[in-house]
Design a protein that fits this description.
The structure holds two protein chains of two kinds. Chain A is of the alpha/beta class. Chain A is about 30% helix and about 25% strand. By secondary structure, chain B is α+β, with helices and mostly antiparallel strands. Chain B is built from three helices and eight strands; from the N terminus they run ααββββββββα. The longest helix of chain B is centred in the C-terminal third of the chain and has 14 residues. Chain B starts with a helix and ends with a helix. Classes of the chains: A alpha/beta, B alpha+beta.
Chain lengths: ~450, ~150
Amino acid sequence: MTQRQLIFTKRDWDAVHAELLRDEREVAMYALIGRATMDTRERYLVRELVNLAENDYDVREGDQIVIKPATVNRIIARCEDEDLGILLLHSHPFEEGDVWFSRTDNWGEARELRTFDACGGGAWPLASLVLGQRTVAARTWNFAKPDAPRVEPIDEIVIVGDHIERRPTIGAKHAPVNGLDEAQARQVLAFGEAGQARLARTTLAIIGAGGTGSACAEMAARLGVGHIILVDHEALEETNLSRVYGTTRAEVGRKKVHILKEWIEKISRARVTAIDAPIQRDAFALREADVILCCTDTQVSRAVCNQASYQYMIPLIDMGNRIHAPSGTIESASAQFTLAGPGRACLDCYGTIDYDRVRAEQLSREEYARLRKEGYVVGLDAKEPSIITLNTLIASHAMTRFLDLIAHTGGPTLAKFQYSYLDGELHGVFVQPRARCTCTHVLARGDSIPLIRS
Amino acid sequence: MIDPKHLELVTNKDLRGELIELAKYHGVEVLGRSDNYYDIVVKAYCPPNAGYAISANKDEGAGTSPEGTTNLLIRIHETHPHAKPDMFWVYPHIRLAGGSYPNAADNILPAYGRNWQRFSWHMTTHNWRPFHDTLANTWLPFIDQCFSKVI
């Protein structure tokens, strides 16, 4: 069973409501969309809304709209320029109950979308949505057989903002969710069965199974997250035992993802997917996630997670800490997390990613050694100080933010949180998205552009 | 201009698009892939500064490019556009008008049957922006700018 989702930023979703329900007559609009196609899931990703002016309609009445052919041609030209598909949106403002597409909608959408399909050579994602006063219905269109288009319901609208809202559509099918687990009874007292169910339906990708990643994985499992994707390619070393959760001395030499997978399966009902590879080698795995946690200290993994977050409209929490102790005494120590993702500034907007270092991390061992000797690349070999308390502290703050994102527990909707260990100061930082940045370029493009190396 | 067969060597779609853009203004060849890099040559490159001279020494490639020009090798990492480009190579070699090698440009890379002269020149003052910084609008202008500075 393929589950279909239509994903909006909160800002766009609010704009759709404001536009489509602005008066008592039907209103139409368009959205440029990308798509991610996975084995059991399809995501339709809204990149840009296109409002119509009154003179774009031939007819706009209480129960009927006809859009001018010239307007449709203009929208097709946008799709061609951007190599993106189209979502047709319109309203039934008279509908107070369960909204659904009329027979006229069926006929009109089939005719209009067939034209889009022909212009896109069958490659563009095509979908439609109808909004009533209280409910929404949406569907996808496929014209592989032009005379018998295949229409499939979109199961939920996902709205990404300070929280992730998953709004069911009319006529949708839903995957069953495991029943409530007694193990989570005390936290259900805090955020309710609805919040717990949202956690159970969540897929969380954790990149890095080290000090912060393993702490996040342990918390996610105990919180009741339904599916955890772990990505790491390193083996457990003796020096990891001081801070990697779920590990024992007997397991030194085994891959950390496999140890952690076994541990999580012992302590929770979570389904665990372990990926024994650097994330840049298997970046497509990120598409499955509802939230990505970046818990590594490499710049290339940050760059990959950042791109995937916007390209597939998945919130990203990047975290890390730094201890400066040149002579065995802590001179400074800080920890931080950044919440990025659609509608927010990305890690590039914050200037978090060092592209000289990305290059250095990707060099072959021989070339790195040669260029390092010549002084042309930054040093990557140094072992940084690391303490479980500081790792767990930032993992804990980041997971609290994750919990609010999914279970709507409340709390500050910080985008960036910094903690200074020696002076005990906490502060939040806010940065506006940059106009010309990775995030604006790749937003919602889905599978239509490559994700690193793919 | 670029031979479509050369483009087929490039599986990175972003890079392929950039090469098509670059080829609107320059002759472009893809020599191959080595060491996780795509090796790309901009043909008949001419440093925009009369203070540099293309070598007349056959061992340094004289005669393998139209007179007064060189083959400019740029090595683009397979993770492009995420890995910031660094350094570039030429064949025939480029010397100062007085005959000596420019600063940080006397290292040799043997590749594809030639001894490429490496310019260990780095983009240090520019914050690399993936997808907005490209070969045509950022990296080649950077190389031009390096050569156009007073020697």
